[in-house]
Design goal:
The structure is a single chain. Helix 1 runs antiparallel to helix 4 and helix 8 runs antiparallel to helix 9. With 648 residues, the chain is an alpha/beta fold. The strands form eight sheets. It has a 20-stranded mixed sheet that branches. A four-stranded antiparallel sheet has the order 4-5-7-6. Among the domains are: 56 residues, no CATH class; 72 residues, no CATH class; 95 residues, no CATH class; 119 residues, Pectate Lyase C-like, CATH 2.160.20; 67 residues. Helices cover 23% and strands 32% of the residues. A hairpin with a 2-residue loop joins strand 4 and strand 5. The protein contains nine helices and 41 strands.
Length: 648
């Protein structure tokens, strides 16, 4: 058995034999103060001092029994680097050392663990150029844990080998009253378990990894135990602190079933080809025809999810992917396995309201006039003649007119193609769920969810397109009217020599912008009316203040005015909310917006890009207008992207 005094003598002897350095025996109220005093006397910074505890201090009670700390302090000796390391550092020129990532230097670490089986010592090896632990370091740690029954030879071997494993070195005076106490807390809906351990007192053993895991399990924690973290806790305990010891596994939801279409379900992009400056409508393929027996779509089945578990082992079910139905429209059927849609007839395939349809084409051999009446058809309509003024053609698919369209209404969920012109006479309206394509447009109202493409010109018309307005051809001019597009307006000529006012707006959603104008007008009207109401309220209120009493009729009138005022303020608040919502939406749009003229742009053209505008006052050639910061700037002409206007 080795006493504490013998241990101190041994350590002092080792110090004298192994290190011929300046040393000092010094005492103080605490370690920090004592080291600061030693630093002054030895002339060495505190960070370069090492020390041994000769006598442990104690505060005492009301000054009785107080003892100062006694330390043996000496200057740290820096070990020389192992021979040959400098040469290795220079080997990068040979293509060797440079292939390896730099290693972070870490010194050896010494750990002492007390268990029911005895006292154990672990010494980790240094990393890189890190300093090795000395036998003195190990003996100091052993002394601090109050171990006085150990084999010095085993300690020396453990330090020398530094294998990073706990080695039994001896025994200690076991005190069951001072052993560590573990508490377990299961939190966050059983998805996490925390341990909290009290610090063992003198003679109290540490908890082992096996004991910690066993105690976790006895408290119902059986899943997701973090064994590596628990091992780390053994070496670096955090007493009286909650430490995460187990973590559940969240369930992973499955993938939704989805449908793969074997036809074009998105017609937002079109490709036009020109011949000699004229659009060739025969090559547009706007109507997608299919044959009987053709496979139209296939359903890919949902994928099941992966279940999870709480730390207590309670299973967490995963939501399977959502199923989706292959919704069948007209003239289609399902395959035997129920996963494939097949066409029953020849015709046009359309995706309408999520349903797959094959629609036959309704053909009008001549004009739409008194002989045909108005047309309402759940498919595609082809008019081989004209649509005369006063008639309506509505289709769930596309509308194709070989001739011209007068003061008429055309409404289609798909594309509208007019091989000749649209002459609306300020009353005609054409509305398409995708694109509008025509030779020319005059005095008409046009709306398209996609693009508006014209070969000759757009004259004094109101045109809205969520994507682009393109006027491509030899006589492609936009003169007069108001045109709004989400992304781009592009024509050969913009405006006219006569300075006709032509308003071009881009960079926003036309419908939202129109709603903003409606809200602004409504707000303006309410504010004007509110001003008059408040004037009347003030008149009656002032009268009441002077007379102190007003007639019953005026009192009712004042009550009514106050109620009306409250209603109007509520309406203004609603308008402000909707306005803010639309403005936030418009601000979130990533589209930049641009206006281009491949030929000329004349004075009188007003260009609006988002919230900024520019009035053209001079004639320019081949230019594009874009938004830079908060200013509309003119730059070199940017042609329409290929695949939008097509190639010549």
């Amino acid at each position: 058995m080795i006493s504490l005094t013998e241990l101190q003598e041994y350590m002092t002897k080792q110090l004298e034999e192994d290190r011929k350095v300046k040393s000092l025996r010094i005492e103080g109220e605490n370690i920090e103060e004592t080291l600061r005093q030693a630093s002054i006397e030895l002339g060495v910074p505190v960070k370069k001092l090492e020390y041994e505890v000769v006598r442990q201090g104690r505060k005492g009670t009301l000054g009785v029994g107080k003892k100062n700390w006694v330390l043996l302090v000496y200057e740290m000796v820096e070990e020389a680097a192992a021979p040959g390391f400098d040469e290795l550092d220079d080997m990068d020129g040979f293509g060797f050392a440079g292939d390896f990532a730099p290693v972070e230097d870490k010194p050896s670490a010494v750990f002492v663990k007390l268990t029911h089986d005895g006292a154990f010592l672990k010494v980790t090896p240094p990393v890189g150029h890190g300093a090795r632990a000395s036998e003195r370091d190990a003996l100091q740690r052993i002394a601090l844990r109050g171990v006085n029954q150990y084999d010095t030879k085993i300690v020396a071997k453990t330090v020398k080998r530094a294998e990073g494993e706990y080695i039994r070195i001896g025994d200690f005076d076991f005190n069951p009253d001072n052993q560590a106490v573990l508490s377990v807390e299961i939190a966050e809906q059983e998805m996490k378990a925390y341990i909290s351990v009290t610090q063992p007192g003198p003679g109290g053993p540490d908890l082992t990894k096996e004991e910690l895991i066993s105690l976790l399990k006895s408290n119902g924690v059986i899943f997701g135990i973090k064994e590596e973290d628990i091992e780390n806790f053994i070496d670096y305990p955090q007493y009286n602190t909650q430490v995460l010891a187990a973590e559940g596994k969240k369930s992973v939801d499955g993938e939704d079933a989805h449908i793969v279409y074997n036809f074009t379900s998105d017609h937002s992009h079109i490709g036009l080809k020109e011949k000699n400056g004229r659009v060739d409508f025969k090559e547009q393929n706007l109507i997608e025809n299919v044959e009987a027996g053709q496979l139209l779509a296939k359903k890919l089945l949902l994928q099941q999810g992966e279940p999870g578990s709480t730390v207590t082992g309670r299973s967490l079910a995963a939501d399977p992917g959502k199923d989706t139905e292959l919704e069948l429209g007209k003239n289609v059927k399902l395959s035997d396995d129920g996963l494939t849609v097949i066409a029953l007839i020849n015709g046009q395939v359309l995706l309408t309201g999520g349903k797959i349809n094959v629609e036959p084409v309704y053909t009008v051999d001549g004009d739409v006039n008194m002989h045909t009446g108005n047309i309402l058809f759940l498919g595609t309509v082809v008019v081989k003649g004209n649509v005369e003024s006063g008639f309506t053609v509505k289709a769930a698919g596309n509308i194709e007119v070989m001739g011209s369209v007068g003061r008429s209404i055309l409404d289609a969920e798909g594309d509208i193609v007019v091989h000749q012109g649209i002459m609306g006479k300020n009353e005609g309206k054409v509305k398409a769920g995708i694109n509008v394509v025509a030779k020319f447009i005059e005095h008409a109202r046009i709306e398209a969810e996609g693009n508006v493409v014209v070969s000759d010109g757009i004259i004094h018309s109101v045109v809205d397109a969520n994507q682009r307005i393109l006027c491509q051809g030899k006589r492609a001019a936009i003169v007069g009217g108001k045109l709004r597009a989400g992304e781009e307006i592009n024509a050969k000529v913009l405006g006219s020599v006569a300075g006709t006012e032509t308003i071009l707006e881009v960079g926003f959603d036309p419908k939202s912008k129109e709603r903003l104008m409606e809200l602004f007008k409504a707000k303006e009207g309410i504010e004007n009316e509110l001003q008059e109401v408040e004037l009347n309220i003030n008149t009656i209120t002032n009268l009441q203040r002077v007379q102190r009493k007003i007639s019953e009729e005026k009192a009712k009138s004042l009550e009514g005015l106050n109620n009306k005022r409250a209603e109007m303020l509520a309406e203004l608040e609603e308008i402000a909310k909707e306005t803010n919502t639309i403005n936030e939406y418009l601000a979130s749009l990533k589209i930049k917006g641009k206006v281009s003229a491949s030929g000329k742009i004349f004075p009188g053209v007003k260009i609006f890009i988002k919230n900024e505008h520019l009035i053209v006052r001079n004639e320019f050639k081949k230019v594009t207008f874009i938004l830079q910061g908060k200013e509309v700037r003119m730059t070199k002409y940017e042609p329409v992207e290929e695949g939008i206007a097509g190639s010549g």
